[in-house]
Write a structure and sequence with these properties.
Layout: H1 2-14, H2 18-27, H3 41-48, H4 50-78, H5 84-100, H6 113-123, H7 128-142, H8 145-162, H9 173-189, H10 191-199
């Protein structure tokens, strides 16, 4: 019963609509009614600028890191399961699901990338810089933030699997399974972006690279 309660709590934590709250407090707007209509940090960047986008990104990361790192530990201490990673993944994905389909915002949330970063930082932080390098390389090369997110997600299981050969800490089975699920989830949540890339209508990052105060 405690396990189910904490999974629900993880979902509710992930459901906190950070981008909607920040955009409402900052400019009294609903971010979903502007730009791409997505309640994520990238759209906040386009509409409100990089400072507010960083705030949203940090909060999105934290609200998934918290259930993965803290809530899961409490579950692990109360029940007998040999692999805490399995519990962390369940709590983390509950938070990511909450971010993508938030009960507090009509089940219309973000793409889940920021919250997945929070889960990854809690599970295996050494991998994050490598995935970030992939994402930045793709964004700089193509101009598509969405494509950078997708390629970073695809690179995750590859990086996880080659780490033991490089003499770095060997990941447990639950982390390997998590890494294999992430690309499918990110591709699914970015399916509209993929369609726009094919049609040539997806926004490019270089069109919004303007660090200025929004009126």
């Amino acid at each position: 019963m405690e396990f189910i309660t904490l999974l629900i709590l993880s979902y509710l934590t992930g459901s906190i609509p950070t981008s909607i709250i920040v955009s409402r407090v900052a400019k009294n707007i609903d971010i979903r009614e502007h730009g791409s209509g997505n309640a994520g940090a990238t759209n906040v960047y386009r509409i409100l600028g990089w400072k507010y986008a960083l705030i949203v990104l940090f909060l999105d990361i934290f609200k998934a890191w918290l259930p993965t790192a803290i809530y899961a530990t409490k579950i692990f201490q109360s029940i007998s399961i040999p692999d805490i990673g399995f519990i962390q993944i369940l709590c983390g994905f509950s938070a990511v699901f909450g971010h993508t389909y938030p009960i507090f915002a009509g089940f219309k949330g973000g793409k889940g990338v920021g919250s997945l970063i929070g889960v990854l930082l809690a599970l295996f932080p050494v991998v994050f810089p490598l995935c970030l390098i992939v994402a930045i390389s793709v964004v700089v090369t193509t101009g598509y933030v969405s494509l950078g997110s997708i390629f970073a997600a695809i690179s995750l299981p590859i990086i996880i699997l080659i780490l033991p050969g490089l003499g770095i800490i060997t990941p447990n089975l639950s982390l390997v399974i998590f890494s294999l699920l992430v690309p499918w989830f990110v591709i699914y949540t970015h399916r509209s972006n993929i369609s726009r890339i094919r049609n040539g209508t997806e926004n490019r990052f270089d069109k919004t690279l303007i660090f200025k105060k929004r009126k």
